[in-house]
Design goal:
alpha/beta, 5 helices, globular, Rossmann fold, 170 residues, 4-stranded parallel sheet
Length: 170
């Protein structure tokens, strides 16, 4: 018998999905739904989202960009888009940065909950690219020019879910 200490759990890497097949997402209708707060950060998230759409072959004509006043309003806008049936996926982009009041908890929590509920209610894919961070610096780290840009990742997750739902639904 040995006195081995339990090994710490290490976060594992992300297993990337299969690359898109030629023209696989050409007809995908995607809405980028962004907030009007923290514009520099949101603009960087939008840039990452656009790069991913291009990388995955989504036709520019099938992409719309809309703006909600803030993160708290995203769920209602996403719900209306999903109910309309005009899109295959909605990608929400924003940044909620912690301040000195409990405002952060209410906005971040209700935004996430409302978006999840809308997605499940309408069985429409949702990319959650709303940063919930403690500092502006943390937000900037998450919206750089690489593939780890959270806007890029939110679009990739949306397209991967479109692929999965198409496979499930035939």
């Amino acid at each position: 018998m040995t006195d081995r200490q339990p090994q710490p759990i290490v976060k594992s890497g992300y297993k990337a999905p299969a690359k898109p097949r030629r023209k696989e997402f050409r007809d995908a209708r995607i809405v980028l739904l962004a907030t009007r707060w923290n514009t520099e950060i949101v603009n960087a998230l939008l840039a990452g989202a656009r790069r991913c759409l291009d990388d995955w072959g989504v036709q520019a004509d099938n992409v719309s960009e809309l703006y909600a006043p803030g993160a708290y309003e995203l769920p209602l806008a996403a719900e209306a888009l999903m109910r309309s049936g005009s899109c295959d996926g909605v990608v929400t982009l924003g940044a909620v940065i912690r301040g000195d009041t409990p405002h952060f908890e209410f906005v971040a929590g209700e935004c996430a909950r409302g978006l999840r509920e809308a997605s499940q209610r309408h069985c429409t894919t949702l990319g959650f690219g709303v940063l919930t961070v403690n500092t502006v610096e943390q937000a900037i780290e998450r919206c750089g020019s690489g593939r780890d840009n959270k806007g890029y990742e939110a679009v990739a997750a949306t397209l991967e879910m479109i692929r999965l739902l198409r496979a499930i639904n035939g």
